[in-house]
Amino acid sequence: VQLQASGGGLVQAGGSLRLSCAASRSIFSTRTMGWYRQAPGKMRELVARISVSGVPSYAAVLQGRFSISRDTAKTTVYLQMNSLKPEDTAAYYCNTVPSLDENWGQGTQVTVSS
After folding, report:
1. Which residues, at least 6 apart from 96, have a Cβ–Cβ distance to it below 8 Å?
2. Burial level of 12, CB count in 10 A (0-12/13-18/19+)?
3. Integer Cα distance of 15 and 17 in angstroms
4. Which one of 50, 55, 74, 106 is most buried, by most CB atoms within 10 A?
């Protein structure tokens, strides 16, 4: 089942965006969820994850600018992105951690202008 991310867009450096990803209850209630990103010419990387119990962890490169959360009632995971930088420009995806091939959706594009 593909997981569809939404909420991307074009924003100036220093701005904020919030991404959303709705998942089925069976996935949401049993799997760690993660946000991944892939910039042009680069490998896809995991930037944030949140456990079933709600414990978050982040890639060091984010330096505390992003926050991942989950809404159990809505079975939705969010990524709040603050103080965005041009180097955050990428397609953002949600998936389980570890990822499953069948869950990759089209992603949502985040473009940060300088």
Report:
1. 27, 31, 32, 33, 34, 103
2. exposed
3. 7
4. 50
In the numeric block, which tokens belong to residue 103?
């869950």
Whether 56 and 77 have beta carbons less than 8 Å apart is answered as no
105 to each of 55, 61, 85, how far by Cα in Å? 24, 24, 24
What's the mean per-residue pLDDT of the chain?
95
Q: Which run of H or E residues covers position 87?
A: none
Question: What are the pLDDT digits (tens) for 48-103?
Answer: 999 999 999 999 988 899 999 999 999 999 999 999 999 999 999 999 999 999 99
Nearest to 14 by CA among 90, 68, 88: 88
Is the N-terminal amide bond of 98 cis, ω within 30° of 0?
Answer: yes
- Report H helices in the chain: 25-28
